[in-house]
Amino acid sequence: MDKEKVYIVINKKASIEPDKDALVKDLGEVYSTKPDIKKNIENIRVKKRNVEEDWDYITAIEISEKVLSRYPDIDLDLLGEVEVLIEYKSRQKERPFFEFIKVFLVCIILFFGASIAIINFHADVDAKKAMEKLYFTFTGEKKSNPLIMNIPYSIGIGVGVLTFFTRIFSFSERRKKEPGPMEIELFLYDEDMEKHILNDIKKNEKS
Predict the structure, then answer these.
(1) Is 4-88 assigned to CATH 2.60.480.10?
(2) For the whole prediction, is pTM greater than 0.85?
(3) What is the DSSP pairing of strand 13-16 with strand 45-47?
(4) Where does the Stage V sporulation protein AA domain lie (predicted)?
(5) Where are the alpha helices (DSSP H) in the chain?
(6) pLDDT tens for residues 31-76?
């Protein structure tokens, strides 16, 4: 008799509430032609609950051992990651006002920080003198503060930064769905942080 084929696609990371056990369905997706087997495997406990918010991990081998101990007659294939980083995190209540204040403060800090950086850059390269020379080159007149060049240049900086960090000006729906540079940097930061936490947990286990 052929064994029932079961696939489990292991995720890279899982978020679980501290008071709940880690089940197979929390760590990956189960595929089987028999719905009852699929459901039972999804609800197999692979790690005991953690009473506090913390980080932990489990390997794909440990998951397969737990599943095969309950269903030794299945043909199990594991796909995806070789280990799962588990984040024990309580579900946070939505606080719209607090979120608004946080975003507002971050925007203010970024605005003044970027303004000071741009001002210092222009002071270092003596942008005022460069504009005066450009104005003299194009018009043949000497002017200490050529607003006809300074104003468009200032507007261009704002539009350029806005265009660089967002896709709202694109007419293509595909381009609008692409992540901006800031989103990519945040994604890479999250990946590096999770790798560091995982390596740190492993080091603590060995020591």
Answers:
(1) yes
(2) no
(3) unpaired
(4) 4-91
(5) 24-27, 35-42, 60-70, 96-125, 127-139, 147-165, 173-177, 181-206
(6) 999 999 999 999 999 988 777 888 999 999 999 999 999 999 899 9
